[in-house]
Amino acid sequence: MTSVFSKKDFIATKWFTLEKLIQLITGVLIVPQIFSLLGTVDIGKLKFVESVLGMLTPLFFLGLSGICIREIVFHPKRSQQILATAFYLRLISWSVILIGILIYFNSFESSPLKGLYYIITISYLFKLTDVFEYYLLAKKQTKIIFLSKITSLIIIVSLQYYGVKQQLDVYYFAKLIVLDFFIQGLIYTLILKYKKQFSFQHWTFSWPLGKSLLKMSFPLIVSNSLIMFYITIDELFLKYFLGDHANGIFATVQFLVIALSWNVGFSIINALYPSLAESFQNNRPLYIKKIRRLLQIMCALAILIGVLYTLFGNAILSTYFTESYAEAKTPLLIFCWAPLFVFIGMIYEKHLINTNDLQKNVYRFILGCIVNVILCYLLIPIWHVTGAAIAVLTSHFITNIVYIFLDTKSRKQLLLLF
């Protein structure tokens, strides 16, 4: 990796990877206890609320992450104005969504899950401070991100352990999500202010810049909306056909594969994206080499994840989870291969950001949504959670592999890498 990527790139990746490995270890120790304490029904309720609000995350985040990092790399002197504008755009969007949720639950819907919806919505307010991550990623100062997230992790895991020992309810653990984002944002703010990298008094909102950022990010907003919809489709169908228990089972599979596994790959790709953007702007042959090397690394990691859960998935579920989660064994054997397709799609999306070709992201996720809806409708009533795993794995394959080969330009670019 160091033969293509610089030492600074390697250090940035090291901190992200170390963070995810620590999260993995602590997750294995504490999260199964939370799942066992709350049971499949309460976990299913929390997962369903997170999934429904997750469909709104493109409106919360406005697709600004990759765009802002790219713009900071390309225009470093405008960093503060870019971040300030992104922050205020997201604050306005969050306020509008909050008002809509309050009106909905107080005028049209009386849901027993209303409290959970309010708690998770508030968590997105504190998530606004992740605009500081855009700057830190662009500047490859990932050590600060590591310190912030690990400090928050230590606090949250301690409180989760307390909640397990005291046998507290699902609302307690939902509130910890809010606290997690608050702590991370507070640490970012204090560190950046102490290091005098920002002059917060001079943060100004630029409407022309805001319109420009939104115009550039609009395809990402649409494609991310499609992503969240097609990821959430499974939970909606499971809820409709089978109820909260099935969502609790599927949440276990997603926790093991996504939270403990492919988030490591996601972090590596994000950490190296500024390096890709720099090379795309200054040295195209080196850019191609970096993309090729990153694909090799991520495919190897994805195969390792698949083999790990294929060989030890049943033992992990039997050892760390109660018998009520035994139904997750077969879906886990299927879904554990999703990272192989998803990692390729993540790298492809970064390439589309660099080339300003993001409309293709919209097309491929429209295709993924259609496939997932059809398969969920056909498979979940027959094979239950296993059907959901087959549906989402197939949709990932169609979205991240088949589409690239269907698109002539993307296929030619991919073949150049091999």
UniProtKB/TrEMBL annotation:
Keyword terms of this UniProt record: Membrane, Transmembrane, Transmembrane helix
Subcellular location: Membrane
GO cellular component, one term: membrane
InterPro entries registered for this protein in UniProt: Polysacc_synth, PolySynth_Transporter
Annotated CDD domains: MATE_Wzx_like
Transmembrane segments: 21-41, 53-73, 85-105, 117-137, 144-164, 170-192, 213-233, 253-273, 294-312, 332-349, 361-380, 386-406
Protein name: Membrane protein involved in the export of O-antigen and teichoic acid
Organism from which the protein derives: Winogradskyella thalassocola
